[in-house]
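Is molybdenum atom placement plausible here? Inputs below.
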Amino acid sequence: MNSAKHAANGVFPSVCSLDCPDQCGLIIHKENGKIVKIEGDPSHPVTQGAICNKVRNMGERIYDPKRLQYPLKRVGGKGEGRFERISWAEAIDTITSRWKQTIDAYGAEAILPYSFYGNMGRIGTEGMDRRFFHRLGASRLLYSICQAAGTEGYNYTMGGAVGTDPEDTVDAKLFIMWGINTVSTNMHQVVLAEKARKNGAKIVVIDVHKNQTGRWADWFIPIMPGTDAALALGIMHILFAENKTDEAFLRQYTVGHEELRQHVKQYDPHTVSAITGVPAEDIVKLARLYADTSPSLIRIGNGPQHHDNGGMCIRTIACLPALTGQWLVKGGGAIKGNGAVLEHNAAALQRPDLLKRSTRRINMNRLGSALLELEPKIRSLYVYNSNPAVVAPDANRVRQGLEREDLFTVVHELFLTETAKYADIVLPATSSFENTDFYRSYWHHYIQLQQPVIEPYGESKSNTEVFRLLAQAMGFEEQALKDTDEELIRQALDHPANPHLEGMTFEALTERQFMKAKAKPLFPGRLRTPSGKIELYSKAMEKKGFPPLPTYTPLCEDGDLPFLFIPAPNHNFLNSTFSNNEKHVRMEKTPKLFMNAADAEALGIQTGDAVRVWNRRGECELTASVGEDVLSGVVVSQGLWADAPGSKRLVNALTPDREADMGGGAVFFSGRVQVEKAGREPGL
Ligand SMILES: Nc1nc2c(c(=O)[nH]1)N[C@H]1C(S)=C(S)[C@@H](COP(=O)(O)OP(=O)(O)OC[C@H]3O[C@@H](n4cnc5c(=O)[nH]c(N)nc54)[C@H](O)[C@@H]3O)O[C@H]1N2
Ligand SMILES: Nc1nc2c(c(=O)[nH]1)N[C@H]1C(S)=C(S)[C@@H](COP(=O)(O)OP(=O)(O)OC[C@H]3O[C@@H](n4cnc5c(=O)[nH]c(N)nc54)[C@H](O)[C@@H]3O)O[C@H]1N2
Ligand code: SF4
Ligand SMILES: [Mo]
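Reply from A.M.:
I modeled the complex. Tokens:
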């Protein structure tokens, strides 16, 4: 397998590198040194040969003529996209000379790395990069754009990113897909649920939008955005009131059930209905269905936590399986994420000890504000694995920040993305098929190794390779900055504190391709909460100033415009990835705005009309889709679309850069907008 990249022809194992819970096993077919076909690996125990369209078509992205081949320097204005080819030597020298001057004049904290998980390989996303920026003494990024609020909330209840093993969910009799667009974002959970459905399982979807997942459900429950905690509390109210709780489980494995029993008395069905928009009889029906069906699984998605109250909301939903004792039933319980199951040795990989003194942390969700307002100023930005000009909240401000003439920006990318167009230096990145890395799913329990299948495209280099070059040019002598990719992987896997990784060595992974965590069911057992139990009452939250019991808190004020705007991901893109591919764009057709028929009628809008969606942060032009898929007062779009000449489709121009209640999380779905037929006078 080591020689796969040199082999001209053959079939090679691989893994999907995208930020998707499924982390599919892949088989790559090569002819004459090039990838000709990508399919699912039938021997992967969870993904079993099925993959999504996006990745079946990945070859087109790998060999897209638009892909970057050489380092570039900017010759036009920022954002314009005019560049000239330069050598790697010139690129590295330009960057490091500029950084040395910046550090002399302002200190290393004037430099900010900005990245996310455009490629989920761990050594390329949280390995050599972290080592380098720690040694440099740069400002540190708070990685909060995806699931930070929900993670903190879930941890207060459950002590870590642990839940049901998805493979067990084939046995479930009830699935509650809660704020997750499973059909598009976690397709193998759908496959597992479909198997269970053949044995009589029912599928309930709770969402603000009846999208492809809502249409697949046996019962779709529409809810007003940001009110899910109230619904969960309403279910608890009924479970306690009707004696449908598992008292033995509550006594043995939870703390605070007596306080909770009293606390939820206030969340009667009528009160909850007024908050959530869910009819009182449906709340009762849902609670009884949940109590009377076993095993029952709650699959908790990202939707409810991309809100001002997202942390508390997920903390609250996470309490439900404890009330019915579902954690003791195989296939029952909940899955928010299983990222802690295969936790690697982060300290060995990231080497925080290379950071000599603590540096400031900058929330990635407030990039625009950070670039425009923060003192002392950010003077240089290094972006990789991410496209903030499209994906970050309040994106117009992000772009204003990127326009600053005195900001020295470097972007390491596969494509000249919207962000890369603002760079002073653009570096070409290899794709995951050209790299060595290890991958651990945040949903299933498998870890997998990727070794290069093809040669680097053009002059492109991997993230780890670029940071080794930068370290050398900065004159850094530490061995940690010279370690090879294989050494990085070995150091990360060597983690005696996590017994689930036992036996998962570089050799074993090379030979076996994927290996499963040696994880036992959570109960009987001790959680990593302070009490070791499920914390229905959390003293840790109390200490931090949160209500210690699960609580519904309304969304923040966001002006007085009439609609809550939910700009969610779509089926054929992966965040902004693939939004520059013609085939994927054709499949998505055009960016739509889903509206309720009553709202549309009041505004004189019909399906197919161009509508202007605006607020004080910015505006978009989308195509109206009118019907009953969303409640009145809510508008929904799907997809993070690439810029296109003459069109306004940057949905994040409208999203607030406030921080959620926990984890500094993003609140993409808590912004308000106005909608009007395009072409009218603005504001009328
Ligand atoms: N095809 C595809 N797959 C993807 C991605 C992609 O862009 N495209 N992105 C990947 C990434 S990075 C992530 S984090 C995951 C995210 O995948 P999911 O966990 O599915 O999260 P979202 O798609 O953000 O939102 C899920 C649903 O929440 C709904 N929602 C919004 N607000 C609320 C609310 O207040 N309450 C309720 N109940 N529902 C609400 C939205 O309408 C949406 O249907 O998917 C990954 N997989
Ligand atoms: N409105 C709205 N905005 C959102 C969301 C939403 O639901 N609604 N979802 C949010 C969420 S959950 C997330 S996770 C973020 C994701 O936001 P991002 O992490 O920015 O995700 P992508 O848009 O996929 O961009 C990843 C980029 O990394 C590049 N890349 C891939 N592999 C490599 C590599 O090996 N090296 C380098 N240097 N680059 C590489 C890709 O070419 C791509 O341009 O978006 C967030 N933004
Ligand atoms: S994007 Fe998700 S579903 Fe598609 S191949 Fe990758 S891991 Fe599988
Ligand atoms: Mo994400």
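Short version: The pocket of molybdenum atom (ligand 4) is lined by residues 19, 146 (CB under 6 Å).
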